[in-house]
Here is the input.
Amino acid sequence: MPRPVQYNVNVKAMENPIGLVEAPEGAAGQGFFATKLSDVVGLARKNSIWPLPFATSCCGIEFMALMGAHYDLARFGSERVSFSPRQCDLLMVMGTIAKKMAPVVKQVYLQMAEPRWVLAMGACACSGGIFDSYPVLQGIDQIIPVDVYVPGCPPRPEAVLDGFMKVQELVGKEDLRRRNTEQYKNLLESYGIQ
Amino acid sequence: MTNQQIQQKLTGKFGEQLTSWEEPYGMLTFSSSKDLNLKVLQFLYDDPELKFQFLTDITAVHYPANLGNELAVVYHLHNLVENIRIRFKVFTDIKMPDVFSATALYSSANWMERETYDFYGVNFVGHPNLKRILNVDDMDYFPMRKEYPLEDQSRIDKDDEMFGRGNPPNLAHN
Here is the structure.
């Protein structure tokens, strides 16, 4: 019950008191529920993505707003921002990556355990942005595979949320065997990753 | 101590070997041949009145039109006692950009000369560890020389028309 001050006296019921995710499609009966394993795993994964913020410049400031109370990435099960790559599922690269920084980004990516996803935030991480010049990596997809690109200079937190929801969609629908496929191996091979 | 006194002291020691005296915005500036750079710096350092014992900066400038003397190495010196700054330049041929290293005199020259080497390719003779300091190690050119286009030429996905660079035929597929 809020403090009964003059302008804050009406008690409002929440539309959904506790936010629950939708159950996947399946056969339900008395005392059992049968569905695909990949759906359940996808459901669990996509609602507890641990991001690793790799913030190098102004997009990192925008990310701080995203993590704050107003935009609140925690609503998506991602309040646990980790700074250890080994615990993370999503590498969020935010900001200009200089060519000298490229091996560091790649090493962080290599240290992450499969399954792992990458989100490139902002024009610089996506394409080098305005820095069409000798010291700047022209997009992080030169060194690591990227799942979702969020354009903008810098993008608003809403845009990053949209990108994050795109990542959730990918995570939720991913086939459990995808990381073992020939196609995925070829993709990593093209980046020189075993 | 005024600029005139500094100039008199220097010409008293080195005579006509120091040239191009000027005072842009009140800062005394002069040049010498590149073989003389350490002697001049040592004199500026040791002289009990001049005492230019702080090396503010070393950088270089590329003048492509200045044939035979394309690269200028610029020393910015500071007398901390009297708070006077001077600027000293030596010019070198870009085909043989060897300049004596000032690291024995000023320890701070170490990183500055590495940076100048990194961006302009000035070969500082006598430097203890002359390798790249800011750019990637496998870079095989000196990016601040005016020999290269400003943009990254490895890019193939940028449409030149969108960047106001005309309409080159080889990028018509965009």
